[in-house]
Amino acid sequence: MILASLRRMIAKLRSLSHNPAEEELAREISSHLVLLEDDFRMQGMTPEEARRRARQAIGGVEQTKQLHREERSILWLEQTRQDLRHAFRTLARNPGFTFTAVVTLALGIGVNTTLFTAYDAVALRPLPVANPGGVVRLERWFESGFAGDTQYAFSWPEYVYCRDHEDSFADLVATSWPVHVLIANSTGGEEARTQWKNLQGQMVSGNYFNAFGIGTALGRTFGPEEDRAPGANPVIVLSHASWQRDFQGDPQVIGKPVKINGTDYTIIGVAPGAFTGTSLLPQVPDFWAPASMQGQLASGQDWLRQPTDFEFQVLGRLKPGVALKQAEAETNALIHQFSNTYIAHDRTLKVTLQHTAFFGNTNDIRFKAGVAALMLIVAMVLFVACANVANMLLARGATRQREISVRLALGASRARVIRQLITESVLLSLAGGTVGLALSVLAARLIRTAVTQMLTAQLGGDFAFSLNLNPDARVLAYALILSVIAGIVFGLSPALQFTKPELATSLKDETTSFGRRVARSRFRSLLVIGQVAVSVLLLACWAF
Amino acid sequence: MPIQILQGTLDLIVLRTLATIGPQHAYGVATRLEQVSEDLLKVNQGTLYPALVRLEQQGWIKGTWGKTESNREAKYYAITKPGLKALREETERWRQMAGLMDKVLTEES
User: Fold this and answer.
1) CA–CA gap between residue A15 and residue B91 (Å, rounded)
2) A34–B44 C-beta distance less than 8 A
3) Which terminus of chain A faces fewer neighbouring Cβ atoms within 10 Å, N or C?
4) Per the CB < 8 Å rule, is B46 touching A72?
């Protein structure tokens, strides 16, 4: 039985795509008619009489064909296909209207998609590491209620204590905030002094690259033991961006000596281009060094021994099968034990584990409120666009009304006509959405350039922006869903208006439409009022 | 008085007919139905088509073009192996259903 219905489903689907079945059916029915006619003639009827009776016996040729079609294929898909074809023709017949509507919608959807792209890059995209789902970031909550980046900061002794006592993580890594250094080719002698460059790097625990499953484009990464003996491991891994920019992508760069803040280092590897770092800042580090080199990279300080120097972010990869809550409880207990012993001032009340996105804790209420406000504003832009298009559809109503009245008079159900009109408006908004998506890709590039320049001016030096603003599946889905919703929103009200039952009378007498015209103009002025209100609001927001 | 075909029984009727008289075209099936029912069952011949397409899509019958005795072309439907199996199952189901209906109706009267 299941097999039979599966076969049937396949046959139905096939009959949608191409249609030899239709010719076959015509042939079969005409042969059926011929046989009937033969028999009727044998009974002594005239050829005309036989023809008529044959058609009667079969119950109408067109009706039979329709019965066959309905049984053969999937009705609603077939109808959607008809609707789409009709919608394409209607839109192509009115290029001016179509163009204006598509551009209007493209702007509305484009703005929304751009914002979502940024939100996606900041809050939804996981870190660029292997299996990011299991990676968490430690966040601490201070007794004083202090909030901000410091909540993600831990001291090296805290990290070491956790690392050596925990049982929930496959790996626990630490990574410092970027430190700014001067770097030069150490073989250059006096001449190289003119080539000192200002770069920024991160100090990381030795297991950093291995824990995140990051390979290299060239060379090797750190071993887990390279963060133990202070000053003993003068090696660095370059980021791909820095390798390209500061070392001209030199394939011979591995093993080269460089001077950083007066100490000689060796370049041992180049990270792959896709690895843009795990920092909270949208900046790709220029290089990574083992934490054991802290004394040389940030001289005059003793981060490795001071339990109150909160300089490192701590990230962990959960062991398979360990629940987040379980790991959180353990980490919490460990930090408590440690801080009870060593930290007197502003104690940490608790430690939580955050699933990692670029922007630390996106559950933060301030972050959420900010995003919601922005979303609301751009949603209004889309609303204005929808209102405009709805208005245009209404204005076009006079010409559509006759067509719709005829369809209703010929027996199309109201729901069927509404469905057809909605199909048309969704098609329109999908076109708008496609253009809008293209616009938002361009806008994201612009934003990237602008932000890069802004941050370069602020942070100085060469700056590689780590946020990935290319649209991913989430952004595509967002644009798609937004388009469909917009299409329904601006299409529904005109569709309902056009198909109002009393409109059918407009076929008989168009002069009776006076009362309706008044009602419609009221709806339109409501739209205009709404638009003006929203525009003023947007202007006001902009002024801030 | 002609009786209406009970919803859902046309497929079974067509299968049974094809199993009995061998490959037949739509008109042939319709004629046969009228004969067997002694004109009690009047089908609008067009209504056979949905049943035929349904059965063919399920793979229970198969249509091929052939010639009639009067040398006209016609599409002949033949029951397939899965069709025969389905016929047995559906017949069994129908018998149970009919028996049940009979019992219910007898008790009620």
Assistant:
1) 30
2) no
3) C
4) no
Taking Cα atoms as reference points, which of B11, B20, B42, B65 lies closest to residue A8? B11
Under an 8 A CB cutoff, do B49 and A67 touch? Answer: yes
Tell me the pLDDT band of A434, cut-offs 50, 70 and 90.
very high
Given an 8 Å threshold on Cβ–Cβ distance, is B46 in contact with A5?
A: no
Interface of A with B in 5-64 (CB under 8 A): 5, 7-8, 11-12, 24-25, 27-29, 31-32, 34-36, 38, 57-60, 63-64
What are φ and ψ of residue B4, in 5° steps?
A: -75, 145
- Average pLDDT score over chain A: 82
Whether the CB-CB separation of A302 and A278 falls below 8 Å is answered with: no
Of A314, A280, A288, A278, the closest CA to residue A158 belongs to: A314
Tokens 């159900």 sit at which residue? A413
Look at B57 and A64 and tell me if their CB atoms are within 8 Å: no
- The amino acid at A314: V
Domain residue spans of chain A: 21-72, 92-123+365-543, 132-355
Question: Quick one: pLDDT at residue A511?
Answer: 47
| Mean pLDDT along residues A63-84 | 81
pTM (2 decimals)? 0.65
Residue B58 buriedness (CB in 10 A; 0-12 / 13-18 / 19+): buried
pLDDT of residue A518 exceeding 70: no
Q: What is the ipTM of this complex?
A: 0.86
For strands A235-238 and A263-270, give the pairing.
Answer: parallel
Task: Tell me how far apart the alpha carbons of residues B13 and B29 are, in angstroms, rounded to a whole number.
Answer: 10
Query: What confidence score (pLDDT) does residue A187 get?
Result: 58
For chain B, list the domains and their CATH numbers.
Answer: 10-108 (1.10.10.10)
What's the token pair of residue A337?
């034990």
Average pLDDT of each block of 10 consecutive residues along chain B (109 residues)? 69 92 90 80 79 90 90 92 92 91 81
